[in-house]
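LAB NOTEBOOK - FOLDING QUEUE
OPERATOR: T.R.
BATCH SIZE: 2
PURPOSE: Compare the predicted structure-token outputs for two unrelated chains run back to back under identical settings.
PRIORITY: normal
REVIEWER: second-year student, initials M.K.

ITEM 1
FIELD SEQUENCE / FIELD STRUCTURE:
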Amino acid sequence: MDKFRMMFQFLQSNQESFMNGICGIMALASAQLYSAFEFSCPCIPEYNYAYGIGLLVVPPIWFFLLGFVLNNNVSMLAEEWKRPTGKRVKDPTVLRYMFVSITQRSLIAPMVWISVTLMDGKSFLCAFSVDLDIRQFGNSTLIQGMTEVEIVTLLAKIPCKNIFDQPSVVSREAASRYIKCISQAFGWFFLLMMTTAAFLIRAIRPCFTQAAFLKTKYWSHYIDIERKLFDETCKEHAKTFAKVCIQQYFEGVSGEMRSFHKNRSGKDDSDDDDDKTSDKDKLLGIHAQDDMNKVLWNWHTCKPPLALRKEQPDGALRVEVGSTGEVNGVNGGPHGLVNGHAHSVPKREWAAYYSKV
């Protein structure tokens, strides 16, 4: 059980590996689902084509949509696409990269389904048995005495072995093998086409757009990580906010109960004060519901620009620049010199130090 838990935590921490695992599971599920599926062609001229083509097309569409549903990046893509611009400009190339990445993963399971279906040939046989030239697989003398409706009805029964009642007119085995060979040929062509397209995309794209590809890949990862960290910060803040609210509630209702619990636990006042200080630090200065709502609203409507502010190192002197461009308090050059010479403006008698302690 611990091994499964460690594997699940690894997949959660690595979004790309997690989605690749989901796509692999869906691909295996599509193959297993087809093998467990009981194929039952209606063997009616009006429904054979619809049933065969529907079995070839509808499940891949369902797997494709399911791939979008299971991909966590879909909500992130929609949020990034619909959010107000604010102070952060939206990059269409990043959105395009995210959409293409999601689409590529979602196409794996449908491709497996289509390949397995074409290789099996039952769906293809059900859909196109009516289009066979009966003269190539039947007795021409018996066929001449049949009407067009009877011929179509007979051809529609070829996929159904149990209800095919005229083996002397048409060789069902020969017709089935012929259509299944065509279906397998389409299956191999489909696999070859998809593999070639994947190879060209992976091999040629980095040769022409490597810099742009790295840029879009970096910022797509940044958006994903930023969203996760924001959710974790909100979760931690909510946990601390609830903890402080409950503590204040019990302190207001019954001070004696709190003193009783402190005496039993053996904690002194200094430890309790340290806990309160650490909890207040986790609140990040937000102590009211309206303030938190405002923070969340501002994050959605106007995300901060992607330009970090440079912080001065510990113990650095503050430098003030006047309107004339002259340096006040400390000269602009090294060791208080400008261009290697002392400045004519007298130095001030004070200096401000910044420290994070």
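ITEM 2
FIELD SEQUENCE / FIELD STRUCTURE:
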Amino acid sequence: MLPVEPAAPPGPDQGPEHPGLSRLLSALFYGSCSFLITVINKTVLTSFRFPSYLCLGIGQMVTTVIVLYVAKMSKTVQFQDFDRGVLLKIFPLPLLYVGNHITGLASTKKLSLPMFTVLRKFTIVMTMVLEIHILRKTFPKRAVCSVAAIVFGAVVAASSDLAFDMEAYTFILFNDAFTAAYGVYTKKKLGDQSLGKYGVLFYNAIIIVIPTLMLSAYTGDLHKAFMFEDWVETTFVLCFLMSCVMGFVLMYSIVLCSYYNSALTTTVVGALKNVVVAYVGIFIGGDYLFSWTNFLGLSICMSGGVVYSYLTFINNKSTTTAHEQNSKLQRTQVIQL
């Protein structure tokens, strides 16, 4: 059971030391990137029927490595050079990174957009549990109740999924677990100043791109990707390249949002983004089978996400204000003494 207690003053992992505008803009940036890449990946994997989500993930990883390497060589960004200590510093992020990539793309290919976004709500619960055990955080009762509403809505929507696919549901639940773990451990690893935001991104991608490439060759995915007939279509190539670039931008936005906020805030932003994606997915994508029970579950789930986000914002704002007032009072007392 999740521990419940009144909201405490912001801790070091909650990001109050960062300017409010930076926290807000990083959250909006992540939400926008997450929305765009979901639509683009869905277009590549479903509309164009690209046969390999592994190769799409490899394209995103390679893009990340190339962009950051060029930026480092041009001294646009700085991060630690590779040595043996890097592997220890960054573990287990590479494993979580590739797991998140592969399961996310697989579930995007196999699920309709609305069901994808509904089942992604379980990431919030998993993030809460991991933050409790890894970051030693606690959550107010209202936040726990809002999460319960989100999960209830997800269960209602999933119970009437007319396109039920056990493999797809397994992929999405694993994706939830990888996403939650990646977010929490990213927040933890960002405390290592020698790696920094860009080092975390670069070494994550470069460590796992070769094993993923070997896996795709072994499973035959690489051959299927090379033989794909739409490589001559300009529209497909543009969508594929957009997915590769947005893969890098998304990972950067996750790290940036986690740096300025908390892992849970990053998860909540993703959930709020899903409010838009789910309803857009009803009208585009062509694979949503409408039913009133499913739509009701979607609405409950999305409403819970909005309420949770609202409560989180109010709580953060009020606790930050109280913290600032307390600091001012302490400074006044010191001056008077």
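REVIEWER COMMENT (ITEM 2): Confidence is low (pLDDT under 50) at residues 1-16, 318-337.
FOLLOW-UP: none requested
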